[in-house]
Amino acid sequence: MTSRRTTTDVPFSARQMFDLVGDVEKYPDFLPWCAALRVVDRDIENDAGALRADMVVAYKVFRERFRSKVMLDPASHSIDAHYTEGPFSALRTRWRFADYAEGGSNIDFFIEFRFRSVLLHTTATMVFEKAFARMTDAFVARAFEIYGENGSDGEPAEQ
Question: How many domains would you assign to the chain?
Fold first, then answer.
Protein backbone atom coordinates (compact mmCIF):
# COMPACT_ATOMS: atom_id res chain seq x y z
CA MET A 1 0.00 0.00 0.00
CA THR A 2 1.31 3.47 -0.87
CA SER A 3 0.76 6.14 1.77
CA ARG A 4 1.84 9.69 2.53
CA ARG A 5 1.20 12.23 5.26
CA THR A 6 1.80 15.95 5.31
CA THR A 7 1.19 18.76 7.76
CA THR A 8 0.84 22.38 6.74
CA ASP A 9 0.36 25.57 8.75
CA VAL A 10 -2.08 28.10 7.27
CA PRO A 11 -3.41 31.52 8.36
CA PHE A 12 -7.00 30.21 8.24
CA SER A 13 -9.11 28.72 11.01
CA ALA A 14 -9.67 25.00 11.35
CA ARG A 15 -13.35 25.60 10.58
CA GLN A 16 -12.55 27.53 7.41
CA MET A 17 -10.33 24.70 6.19
CA PHE A 18 -12.89 22.08 7.22
CA ASP A 19 -15.56 23.93 5.20
CA LEU A 20 -13.29 24.25 2.18
CA VAL A 21 -12.20 20.59 2.11
CA GLY A 22 -15.72 19.42 2.91
CA ASP A 23 -17.15 21.26 -0.12
CA VAL A 24 -16.34 18.34 -2.42
CA GLU A 25 -18.57 19.56 -5.25
CA LYS A 26 -16.12 22.43 -5.86
CA TYR A 27 -13.10 20.14 -6.34
CA PRO A 28 -13.20 20.21 -10.17
CA ASP A 29 -12.82 24.02 -9.97
CA PHE A 30 -9.35 23.88 -8.43
CA LEU A 31 -8.04 20.40 -7.69
CA PRO A 32 -5.47 19.13 -10.21
CA TRP A 33 -6.56 16.05 -12.11
CA CYS A 34 -10.12 16.14 -10.74
CA ALA A 35 -12.03 16.13 -14.01
CA ALA A 36 -15.49 15.74 -12.48
CA LEU A 37 -17.25 15.10 -9.19
CA ARG A 38 -20.87 14.18 -8.50
CA VAL A 39 -22.47 13.71 -5.10
CA VAL A 40 -24.59 10.56 -5.32
CA ASP A 41 -26.32 10.94 -1.95
CA ARG A 42 -25.92 12.79 1.30
CA ASP A 43 -27.02 12.36 4.88
CA ILE A 44 -25.82 15.60 6.41
CA GLU A 45 -27.34 17.75 9.13
CA ASN A 46 -25.65 20.83 10.63
CA ASP A 47 -22.60 20.14 8.41
CA ALA A 48 -22.10 16.70 10.02
CA GLY A 49 -22.77 13.31 8.52
CA ALA A 50 -21.80 11.44 5.39
CA LEU A 51 -22.06 11.66 1.64
CA ARG A 52 -21.12 9.41 -1.25
CA ALA A 53 -19.45 10.96 -4.26
CA ASP A 54 -18.14 9.81 -7.64
CA MET A 55 -14.89 11.45 -8.72
CA VAL A 56 -13.28 11.23 -12.14
CA VAL A 57 -9.51 11.61 -12.03
CA ALA A 58 -7.68 12.28 -15.29
CA TYR A 59 -3.95 12.58 -15.95
CA LYS A 60 -2.58 12.19 -19.50
CA VAL A 61 -3.97 8.85 -20.76
CA PHE A 62 -5.11 7.81 -17.28
CA ARG A 63 -8.82 8.40 -16.59
CA GLU A 64 -10.63 6.59 -13.77
CA ARG A 65 -13.89 6.99 -11.88
CA PHE A 66 -14.23 5.92 -8.29
CA ARG A 67 -16.75 6.31 -5.50
CA SER A 68 -15.98 7.25 -1.92
CA LYS A 69 -17.93 7.69 1.26
CA VAL A 70 -16.98 10.97 2.94
CA MET A 71 -17.62 11.44 6.66
CA LEU A 72 -17.76 15.03 7.93
CA ASP A 73 -17.34 15.82 11.63
CA PRO A 74 -17.27 19.59 12.23
CA ALA A 75 -17.06 19.18 16.03
CA SER A 76 -13.63 17.55 15.71
CA HIS A 77 -12.68 19.37 12.49
CA SER A 78 -12.14 16.06 10.71
CA ILE A 79 -13.00 14.59 7.33
CA ASP A 80 -12.47 10.94 6.45
CA ALA A 81 -13.05 9.38 3.05
CA HIS A 82 -13.13 5.67 2.30
CA TYR A 83 -13.17 4.13 -1.14
CA THR A 84 -16.25 2.06 -1.99
CA GLU A 85 -16.11 1.34 -5.74
CA GLY A 86 -13.75 1.64 -8.72
CA PRO A 87 -10.19 0.69 -9.73
CA PHE A 88 -8.68 0.59 -6.24
CA SER A 89 -8.38 -2.30 -3.85
CA ALA A 90 -8.03 0.35 -1.11
CA LEU A 91 -8.16 4.14 -0.80
CA ARG A 92 -8.44 6.20 2.35
CA THR A 93 -7.91 9.87 3.12
CA ARG A 94 -7.93 11.60 6.48
CA TRP A 95 -7.99 15.34 7.11
CA ARG A 96 -7.54 16.88 10.57
CA PHE A 97 -7.58 20.61 11.24
CA ALA A 98 -6.39 22.14 14.52
CA ASP A 99 -6.54 25.82 15.52
CA TYR A 100 -3.53 27.59 16.97
CA ALA A 101 -4.04 29.91 19.95
CA GLU A 102 -2.22 32.70 18.10
CA GLY A 103 -4.41 32.32 14.99
CA GLY A 104 -4.33 30.13 11.95
CA SER A 105 -4.40 26.36 11.99
CA ASN A 106 -2.57 23.19 11.12
CA ILE A 107 -3.72 20.81 8.38
CA ASP A 108 -2.83 17.16 8.83
CA PHE A 109 -3.52 15.19 5.65
CA PHE A 110 -3.01 11.45 5.19
CA ILE A 111 -3.68 9.30 2.13
CA GLU A 112 -3.13 5.64 1.37
CA PHE A 113 -4.07 3.68 -1.71
CA ARG A 114 -3.52 0.54 -3.72
CA PHE A 115 -4.88 -0.16 -7.19
CA ARG A 116 -6.29 -3.55 -8.11
CA SER A 117 -4.03 -3.66 -11.17
CA VAL A 118 -0.30 -3.99 -10.44
CA LEU A 119 0.50 -2.15 -13.67
CA LEU A 120 -1.85 0.72 -12.82
CA HIS A 121 -0.51 0.87 -9.25
CA THR A 122 3.10 1.01 -10.48
CA THR A 123 2.28 3.73 -13.02
CA ALA A 124 0.21 5.77 -10.56
CA THR A 125 2.84 5.54 -7.84
CA MET A 126 5.40 7.07 -10.21
CA VAL A 127 3.33 10.27 -10.50
CA PHE A 128 1.92 10.11 -6.97
CA GLU A 129 4.56 12.29 -5.31
CA LYS A 130 3.95 15.11 -7.77
CA ALA A 131 0.17 14.77 -7.46
CA PHE A 132 0.31 14.63 -3.66
CA ALA A 133 2.30 17.88 -3.43
CA ARG A 134 0.08 19.65 -5.95
CA MET A 135 -3.09 18.51 -4.20
CA THR A 136 -2.13 19.94 -0.82
CA ASP A 137 -0.97 23.16 -2.48
CA ALA A 138 -4.27 23.40 -4.38
CA PHE A 139 -6.31 23.42 -1.16
CA VAL A 140 -4.09 26.09 0.41
CA ALA A 141 -4.27 28.23 -2.74
CA ARG A 142 -8.04 27.84 -2.78
CA ALA A 143 -8.21 29.00 0.86
CA PHE A 144 -6.31 32.18 -0.06
CA GLU A 145 -8.67 32.69 -3.01
CA ILE A 146 -11.81 32.19 -0.91
CA TYR A 147 -10.81 33.71 2.44
CA GLY A 148 -8.27 36.37 1.45
CA GLU A 149 -4.67 36.87 2.50
CA ASN A 150 -5.00 36.44 6.25
CA GLY A 151 -8.32 34.62 6.58
CA SER A 152 -8.90 36.27 9.93
CA ASP A 153 -12.40 37.57 9.35
CA GLY A 154 -13.90 34.12 8.74
CA GLU A 155 -15.82 35.39 5.73
CA PRO A 156 -15.09 34.53 2.11
CA ALA A 157 -13.14 37.16 0.19
CA GLU A 158 -15.08 39.12 -2.39
CA GLN A 159 -15.07 37.33 -5.71
Answer: 1
